[in-house]
Amino acid sequence: MSIDRRQFELRQASGISRRDMLSKCSTGFGLVALSGLMSGGKALAAAQSNPFAPRVPHLPPKVKSVIFCFMSGGVSHVDTFDPKPRLKKDHGKPMPVPVRPTMFNQNGNIMASPWEFRNHGQSGLPVSELFPHIGACADDLAVIRSMTSVANEHAQGNYFIHTGFSLAGYPSAGAWMTYGLGSENQNLPGFVVLASGGPPLGGMGIFGNGFLPAVHQASFIDPTQKEPLANITPHEADKLQRKRLRFVEGLDHRHLARLQGDEQVESAIHNYEIAYRMQSAVPDLVDLRGESAATKRLYGLDSPVREKAEYARQCLLARRLVERGVRFIELTCLPRSSDPGQIGNPWDQHGVLKAGHSEMAFQVDQPIAGLIHDLKARGLFDETLIVWAGEFGRTPFAQSNDGRDHNPFGFSVWLAGGGIRGGTVYGATDELGYHAVQDVSTVYDLWATVLHLLGMDHEKLTYRFGGRDFRLTDVHGRVVRAILA
Questions:
Q1: Is the confidence at residue 344, as pLDDT, over 80?
Q2: Which of 32, 353, 414, 478 could form a disulfide with 349 if both were Cys (CB 3.0 to 4.6 A apart)?
Q3: Among 168, 38, 43, residue whose Cα is nearest residue 466
Q4: Are 140 and 416 in contact (CB under 8 A)?
């Protein structure tokens, strides 16, 4: 070692830090190795003592915030945004092409959609009668009909569409966006999940920070609870709490000085402060008494159907979060009243497709359309991006006579808002709606496009972990420029 035993004992007695050990032992090679591991992506976070401070994007941004309307369970594309006349023509006939293994392998014959499609708006974009309100917004939508996934199971599919990896342990899209761009609001988290619907299958890790600093994981706000955010209600007088925080902050700064700077300690100091400010910001956010009756009706908050009213509340809160500069907001679907035990995948109809999809579409259709109209009325639509997607689509053939199995080989998602060329269709599945065959798209392409609209080059938004640079789009992804305005 580069220090003698006596010096080591003295240092140990006074409390040697890990950084001291790495710098003083083995001629400092340990600290060199640590510096290498912490380089790259971490430099972005370390450059800011406040991890949520707004950062300069790579490109001129088109939008400031993203609202992710995640339809957990797998929406059937051939019953919503991808009409297939051949399904009606060949209803009841065997599939004319080889069938890939499905989740349950109880595969039947071709099944026609129970719903008709109508052309909407000046664009003539076809939308199923399941979505009359969203259909009326057709000229604002860019539908990607050629989306694909690597996963055919809910938890893996949910992880894949949220993180770009089908296994747990990787950062969610919202975490990547606050890591890369920070937030416009210093009193609220940059990544918020409106959690009245509960997490998709796969659990809370879907919204996690993975290997990014912990401050970038989602904060869960459930407006149906007495405490919409856990432990948000102060249990002592403000003056006493402020005094306690100043004392803790002083200790933290002393510790930080002894370490000669440490991003995790800096983040912890910031977290204490934002938690204090959130005590007033969160209750103000969820208090809708200032919203007009007309606005509440626009979203469907007056619906006697609890699930629709609660999803409407989420959509209205999403607008309020956008107004407050929150970077990434995700909405969660509520379980169907006819099957309340199906938490996490309420769009998953292996049987009784017509009843299940009708119930779910009724839950989300008016609230999402209301969100689009309200954002426009307030001048926020052009600086907000709405992403609507499930983890995969569903098969064109039946399961259990009146259901559909999972289909990751071709399905539909749509985007609307700033920088999007509305009334457009990109890509196509085959005439049965089974496989994407034209302009095949991936989840990597979806997030590359979202990041581009936020002003981020997806290939430059990286974080070094375990000796390699990771990114939301892994080693793939291209911006889908055909849907950009």
A1: yes
A2: 353
A3: 38
A4: yes
Residue type, 322: V
Q: Kindly compute the dihedral angle of the four CA atoms of residues 180, 182, 188, 191, in this order, to the nearest 10 degrees.
A: -10
Please check whether residues 458 and 413 belong to one and the same domain: yes
388 by Cβ neighbours in 10 Å (0-12 / 13-18 / 19+) ranks as buried
State the average pLDDT over residues 437-445: 98
Same domain, 4 and 146: no
324 and 298 co-located in one domain: yes
**Cα-trace Rg, the chain:** 25
Instruction: Please say whether the beta carbons of 391 and 74 come within 8 A.
Output: yes
* pLDDT, the chain, mean: 88
Among 277, 283, 320, which Cα is nearest to 186's? Answer: 277
Q: Please tell me the distance from the alpha carbon of residue 372 to that of residue 5, in angstroms, as a whole number.
A: 69
Q: Rounded CA gap, 284 and 317, in Å? A: 11
149 plus 105 within the same structural domain? yes
Give yes or no: residues 171 and 28 share one domain. no
In this structure, the answer to whether residues 99 and 136 fall within a common structural domain is yes
CATH of the domain at 129: 3.40.720.10
Enclosing domain of residue 30: 1-37
Q: Shortest CA distance to 233 belongs to which of 192, 279, 281?
A: 279
pLDDT digits (tens, 9 = 90+) for 371-403: 999 999 999 999 999 999 999 999 999 998 899
Judgement on whether residues 340 and 398 belong to the same structural domain of the protein = yes
**Backbone phi, then psi, for 107, in 5-degree steps?**
-90, 130
pLDDT value, residue 31: 46
